[in-house]
Amino acid sequence: MGEQFSLAGKSALVIGASNSLGRAAAVASAEPTPLRARKIESWRGLVMAAAGDASGMREHLERAVKLAIEQGRPAARCEALAMLAREAARMGVDRQDEALLALAETSATEAKGLMPVLPGHPLWGAQADAALARVYLARGSFDEAANVGRDALAALDAAMTEDFYLDILLPAAEAILKSAEDTEAAAVRDKVRLTLALLAQHILDEDVRVRWFRTTAARELTRLAGPLETPEGSARPEADGAVPLVDAETGLLRLLTEGRTNREIADELGTTEAAVSRQLAELFVKIGASSRADAAAVALIKRLV
């Protein structure tokens, strides 16, 4: 899930997932079906990927692809190939492993080749393009990375899904921002900011929200969104008709969007938790927010930070 877990915590999660998969596999063996067999292989591949086991990931996801081919299921084959491309690209980039990057490229290309025969707008092609974006970036092919990144974002927009699909958005945005002109870069950053804002609104539990904003995905979103560049001497944007925010208020909002607790904000600013609570309450009134999550969303949507 990201950097909020210790190594021991990650290991416990992987062990728990492996145990659950073992029980699921036992059930599937009692009443076997092609779909169950394929799903079990896919899940096992993802667990192996989460555990950092590249060979295990490849073995199980390639088996899922093989089962889909044997069963004559092009949609299932495309889904499994996109999954294999995504995990191979991620692990290949992390390890600087050309063999994994090559596997990601061939799997993604094969998945994209199947898309024209599939009905509707499944996002497996976009996932394949996002995997290719990672591969091309790792190889320094920035123009190629930007092109497939654009295709991935276009498919994501066309799908009009309510899901966030960070596995598509993050590599696609990264690829585009490497070589985009100012106008295109601004549009991509706006999309990333909006995603951050919507995620902040969707996480109602404050503790969960704080932990989520510390994950690798959240940090990547924040990095790609970038700071708001305000011309020197100009006023800060206004919030719901209120007076412009002063620098101290903007700094407080920025710490809030980073997922800091009141204690951490107090330590950062050299003040007390009580003072931070009071300042946040005043700030919420000023920007028209009813909670920390709402304030983070308002700050990101209205570019207050």
Helices and strands in order, then pairings?
Elements lengths: L6 H24 L3 H17 L3 H17 L3 H22 L2 H17 L9 H15 L3 H18 L6 H14 L2 H21 L3 H7 L3 H10 L21 H11 L4 H8 L3 H15 L4 H10 L4
Helix pairs in contact: 1-2, 2-3, 2-4, 3-4, 4-5, 4-6, 5-6, 6-7, 6-8, 7-8, 8-9, 8-11, 9-11, 9-15, 12-15, 13-14
What is Rg?
22 Å
CATH superfamily of the domain at 192-305: Winged helix-like DNA-binding domain superfamily/Winged helix DNA-binding domain
Mean pLDDT score: 82
Number of strands: 0
Q: What would you say the CATH architecture of the domain at 192-305 is? A: Orthogonal Bundle
Query: Helical proportion?
Result: over 70%
Beta-strand residue percentage? under 5%
Q: What structural class do you assign from the helix and strand content?
A: mainly alpha
> Could you name the ranges where pLDDT drops below 50 across 5 or more consecutive residues?
1-10, 228-242
CATH topology assignment of the domain at 192-305: Arc Repressor Mutant, subunit A
How many strands, what sense, and barrel or not for the largest sheet? Answer: none
Distance between the termini: 26 Å
DSSP helix count?
A: 15
Highest CATH level, the class of the domain at 192-305 = Mainly Alpha
Q: Using the alpha-carbon principal axes, give the shape.
A: elongated
Order of helices and strands: HHHHHHHHHHHHHHH
Question: Could you explain the architecture of this structure?
Answer:
The protein has 305 residues and is mostly helical. The chain has a domain at 192-305: Winged helix-like DNA-binding domain superfamily/Winged helix DNA-binding domain (Arc Repressor Mutant, subunit A, Orthogonal Bundle). The chain contains 15 helices and no strands. α8 (166-179) packs antiparallel against α9. The radius of gyration is 22 Å and the shape is elongated. It starts with 6 loop residues before the first helix and ends with a helix. The relative contact order is 0.07. The model is unreliable at 1-10 and 228-242 (pLDDT under 50).
